[in-house]
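Q: What would this chain look like folded?
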Amino acid sequence: MSSSIAHEDQESGSPETDSDQGGNTDERRSRWRRIADVVIAPPTFGGLVMALIFGWQSFAPTLMPRTALVQGAICAISITMGYAVGTVLGRLVRYLLKSTNRSISHGSWRKARIVLATVAGIATVVGVVMWLAWQNRQRDLLGMDHLGPANIIVVIIAGVVLTAILFVIGRLIGAAVRSLDRWLNKRIPRIISVTITVIVVSVVANYALRDVAFSHFTVWADTTFGEKDASIDKTLTPPESPTVSGSPDSLVTWESLGMQGRAFVADVTTREQLADYWGEDATFTDPVRAYVGVGDGDMVDNAKTAVAELDRAGGFDRGVLVVATATGSGWIDPDAARAIEMMHKGDTAIVTLQYSFLPSWISFLVGLDQSAEAGTDLFNAVSDHWSQLPPDQRPKLIVFGLSLGSYGAESAFAGVNAETSLANVMARTDGVLLAGPTNFNPMHEQLVAGRDKGSSVWLPVFGEQEDVVFITRDPSQNVPDEPETWPLVYVQHTSDPVTHWGFNWLWSPSGWNETPRGFDVPNTGTWFPFVTWTQGVFDLMAGFSAPPGFGHDYRLDYVNAWSRVVPPDDWSTTERDRLMKYLNED
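A: My prediction, written as structure tokens:
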């Protein structure tokens, strides 16, 4: 009997085990087949309609010119979002038709799809051709080289490939959510299952984005940029002048300054540079540059160290003292520093401290409060020391900030409204210069919101323009001759996405595309929900590499701006123009 059983097992090949393996194999095949069915299922009609509309809108120009790859990415993101919106709307329409016992015939659906495919083909060809023409006209406004016709092919290929990738990812996520919803619906009442599905999806999405993706991103950023900040650039020579941080006489070491701090102090304007412009017979003073790196102390301690370093270097003995809030990485625009040092023949001091080593766009995401804290603590510490000096021995106390640094600089003065903020500026400083302000700057928001009726977002007019003036590079702008200087000066380019982009672009038009527009902004751009916001995100990245004088590059503006805030005695427009030409050629 046992022999018979053994023979049966041998012939059957252990039927129990083979059955399990075969079942597992079939199950795996079935699972992959279901996944494949989800991916290759015909697209919804409503999704295709909205994808076409969103994709067409993505070709419109905004604040910055785009490359073909960037346009392909914007197309893909816009099409995917449009498809999702259209699919949801399509299901709502089908539900309404079903609830009213109505339907659309198969023949009508077939004709509609043929028409849609024809329109989509024509729209794609016309859209990319118009995109190229629009982009080249915009590039003319910024003095950039044209894109060639081959870029049309790049847009199409990049758009198709990226759309396919996003489409597959979206369908897989959607299928997973629907599977969860169906599984719950079989076990509990519908209203409860839907609620649980929404909660589960929200919790998983929050965990995946915040606790996994964002957490890993911040760890990567801290590690990567921390190492970069600590690395020593061998091409930089540590300063020897006692008026500069990192020198042998300094309270802070060269190594502690961080990458941007070392670059800042090593680039201080020299007597040779001053003599080259002003002549050998002119009287010069060695400029002071005081800088404190992130270090191990808190912001208040670092601010106190910065004041001590500033005092040691002779900063309170100079004619002009600039409290500068750095950008996220600790960067101070060298063109801004050079301009005021050359203008005042070196009789200046600039003090700042580093609050982060991350690029500004990352600092904006993870450390916006740090910029505000640094700007407030540093100014308060400097102001406390400055106010103890005899009034006739105090330097002019000036505040400066660029980009995220302007956000931090404003924080020391922002009040409950624009009038209060301006009063704080006039009471506590001798002038404030803010370049490329972000869309989230507290004072800037107050002033733009309270601007005179009829003035634009990109060129606001506030009151009689006696306390604040906004300067652009628009050749048609007439800056008032009186007063000669202002307590608060903003320099903002009409094409700068850092100043104009905001989350509200998702649901409402921005002021930059109202008529009239800035001289370097195309008239053909239109606002469209989500799409314009996505274009703005890519504009932000492009703005940092814009040609000088456009986007977020302010190197050409500083001489004119400083002349409106803290000009030297007997300063003239002729001298201003001569220095502008000298520095721009340099």
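Residues 83 and 181 are 21 Å apart (CA to CA).
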